[in-house]
């Protein structure tokens, strides 16, 4: 595999595969920093990553969140200019409300319009 092919694979896995910089470094036997440089040189940012990145678990701030709601929350976070890692429980409640859901006893409930 040439360096160009390797870099293309790294960028594809970063963007579409949901792998972190550290995971890519381990997989390609490169440092996390070198992976970051390759991704940056390709012009990719965290916002370019697909939903696979949101998390592989279904829990966020102690709340089980289905994948489709995670996607809606990620879009809402982008609109607000915040990263998902900086979201607090209050912000999560506000974002869920904006997406048509509410948080009730650590469970997400769809809000049905009357």
Please provide a brief summary of the model:
48% of the residues lie in helices and 11% in strands. It is mainly alpha-helical. Helix 2 packs across helix 3 and helix 4 (67-80) crosses helix 5 (89-98).
Oligomer: single chain
Low-confidence sequence ranges: 51-57
Give the CA-CA distance, first to last residue. Answer: 59 Å
Strand content: 5-15%
Q: State the order of secondary-structure elements, H for helix, E for strand.
A: HHHEEHHEE
The helix count comes to 5
Shape descriptor reads elongated
Quick check: average pLDDT? 78
Reported for the largest beta sheet, the result is: 2 strands, antiparallel
- Could you tell me the number of beta strands? 4
The rounded Rg comes to 17 Å
Number of structural units classed as domains: 2
Strand order of the largest sheet: 1-2
Structural class: mainly alpha
Share of residues in helices: 40-55%
